[in-house]
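#dry-run=false #mode=assembly
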Amino acid sequence: MSFLIDSTPRKDGFRMPGEFETHAGTWMLWPERPDNWRNGAKPAQKAFVAVASAIAQFEPVTMCVSQVQFRNARNMLPGNVRVVEMSNNDSWMRDCGPTFVVDGKTARVVDWDFNAWGGLLGGLYFPWDLDDQVAGKVADIERVDRYKAPLVLEGGSIHVDGQGTLMTTKECLLNENRNPDKTQAEIEDLLAGYLNIKKFIWLNHGVYNDETNGHVDNICCFIRPGVVALTWTDDKSDPQYEISQENYEILQSATDAQGRKLEIHKIHQPDPVLIRAEEAEGVDAVEGTLPREAGDRMAASYINFYLCNGGAVVPTFDDPHDSLALAELQKLLPERKVVGVPAREILLGGGNIHCITQQQPKA
Amino acid sequence: MSFLIDSTPRKDGFRMPGEFETHAGTWMLWPERPDNWRNGAKPAQKAFVAVASAIAQFEPVTMCVSQVQFRNARNMLPGNVRVVEMSNNDSWMRDCGPTFVVDGKTARVVDWDFNAWGGLLGGLYFPWDLDDQVAGKVADIERVDRYKAPLVLEGGSIHVDGQGTLMTTKECLLNENRNPDKTQAEIEDLLAGYLNIKKFIWLNHGVYNDETNGHVDNICCFIRPGVVALTWTDDKSDPQYEISQENYEILQSATDAQGRKLEIHKIHQPDPVLIRAEEAEGVDAVEGTLPREAGDRMAASYINFYLCNGGAVVPTFDDPHDSLALAELQKLLPERKVVGVPAREILLGGGNIHCITQQQPKA
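#status=ok
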């Protein structure tokens, strides 16, 4: 059951909690489409199993899987992961999934419009009708009521501190391929109403060559209220340098909804990660889906980690910077167990661990 | 999550409760296939909505729906019915769905083999692979563990009193198209282990012309332990007369697992219900699916009702016997509200209200 509520969460006393607050569980979607995931998605499926298994140490995980892949997913996943049937166009639960809001007693869902990261203006595939139904289906399974927000938005394009602050990027939210009919002020008004936000921190760009049009969740995140982590490079010749530098300056001069200055931690990125020829060859070349070409640089970042109850699941890239990133995050998150999961196969599909997960906060 | 348990419910202290015991909720499947349901299943869908709405007065209802019909079902069903995506071959949750067992603290699921009422020897359609996955998928959604029983069985072919007695028919359970390699004693052993049964009452035949090979749930059921209701006719020229008479005699001489004689109540059937020409014409004629032909007699019976928390949802046929059946059932079930739902459109698909529902007992 799920009733559609004709109101806004703010009016009803609901807010979006920070990811670091206690979860009821985690939602994921199973990768399958061979025009995005190499070799029939078999390597990606193993990586998703590793991520689900890592999170399931800390909290309940639900994997949503199409009819065709259901039995294979059920066989590959451990018994402590719940598997439910759900059709989809791809496997980015962060972006097409629900945003949960809470009022201290109950959880509800905000269901955004989804257009596959740009619709007919540079979106990553067509159609996206099944993805757009995912949030409502999750709400029904969980028997929580639902708000329908009149805004094209992906969950990965926003981060909140749960205390009234939202962090996002202009590159994504003000892109003409998302909400061309809305001004920045109108977008802020909608986010304020649907997530209970009082203060916006607008970064400029996301990670270099990020196909999402610069989702914030790959470049910067809240560790806890007042504390953020930013992907970084010391290599001034890397196009990422200027992007991170500019965002660092914005963060330095920002204050949050509580009037605090931010504590900013730099997490050095891995060395450039390029698509290999044999990786590109494993992807079906299909018109209308973003091609995967050998030599293309991928938007690799340690910031695309996921916080769960008592844990942090962090992508690794078989890179010399892996151990440094894990150690720094462990220092920033002393109350959590930091777990690295090899994530190259997820990155090859266009995102990372944060992009394939969505938290359901404890009501 | 759902772990497969390599044991039997009896060994683990679980039993199948009677339908009249308290439920956690009801499971249903949405009708859709046009080679079984007339006019693209539109009239049947309205009837299923009426049944789900009637039950939802009393307890939570979950409707499982294919990808293709999901949005239509969500729109047609009231908000207090939960809708979840689940692929299927048809809509008989009683028969392909799980049998829940309980131990006073926990619920688990028994997952039988399903072969569409006879497999390649007179089964009603082909294939049935999606139906056969339904029980496991329900278990996963509910996060309950699962026993896999090595027996072809439909939920509608058994009734239990929750106190060690199981009632079934030889026509179905001993049919060569179900478990030809097993003797009656071997089938009893399996049912004893998986449902915690001590005493079997074997009726002979089910309702005349019942395409399920005589499911017990269309002819006789437990009102409560020690009390049964049997479909009946006073018309000696009706082929149903002899069937009911024979079963009456079996029931009269039977005792249950507690050593009790049974109190037997006759519920007079409706007048013969025949498929009309315009009804038959609305069904796609497809090789491999049971045809629906004008003039065929359907297996109409009031016994195919469903008990839910504080309620009984009973099929009606726009027949002079309707009010008598409702009144008699209300007298037998004074603690429940008896609700009639017009069910001709369900009957046209080959079953009735009990066949399209499956109870999940309270753990």
